Amino acid sequence: MDFLTLPNRTSGKRAHGLTSIIDLGTPIGELFNYLSDYSHLIDLAKIGVGSAYVTPNIKKKVELYQEFDVKPYCGGTLFEKCYHQNKLAEYKAYLHQLGIEWIEISNGTLDIPLMERIEIISNLIDEFHVIAEVGSKDANHIMPASKWKEEIKRLLAAGCEYVITEGRDSGTSGIYENDGHVKSELIAELCNKIDSSKIIFEAPTAKQQMYFIKEIGPNVNLGNVKLHDVLVLEAQRCGLRSETFYLEDLECELL
Length: 255
What we know:
Number of helices: 10
Order of helices and strands: EHEHEHHEHEHEHEHEHH
Shape: globular
Structural class: alpha/beta
Helix content: 25-40%
């Protein structure tokens, strides 16, 4: 029964309003149970850090996600490891063998020049859906807003379907201060200059998720979401939590 007035929420095969989970070793049996109930709330699944390379039965896990219409991809750290060891050709073959259709290009650990990343992307877009990540995992690395904007715009122009803003699975670097607070001025600047529907904001904590929902709206793209938080996140998006209680009223004010 639908009897409440809630914020308008994208559904089905969403182009925005995405929830991207991070899988840091969820056993297949447990994953099946979660997906059986909540797969309609999940769009993408990052097999976090480089864990895909050492995950038992990784092909079965990939196939399980795909069975539930969730798009799996490997964390950018695995790409960077392959880049560092000059194994990108082998990495492409590995992804094709697993049936993975999405690839993340990042420079969170290595300092890969922007133009080199763009060249790599140009060689991948005919074979994969490409997501690029901007920002460093080093909490002490400060990047001005102008560079964030330049990189995001140029990566999208190069053919990336989305750009992820680095936040780590801890929410303590990139778009966050060391203590987890959002760099709100940076986010405001990015959203003022770039279509936020093409950005996936890494937001691993409920507090960070609620910030983006309140600032950008219920259909903001959020990444690094823990699997066990998926249902509560959807409740937050629908104004069913105290901190997002008045979302539908804000939407009406904007119309």
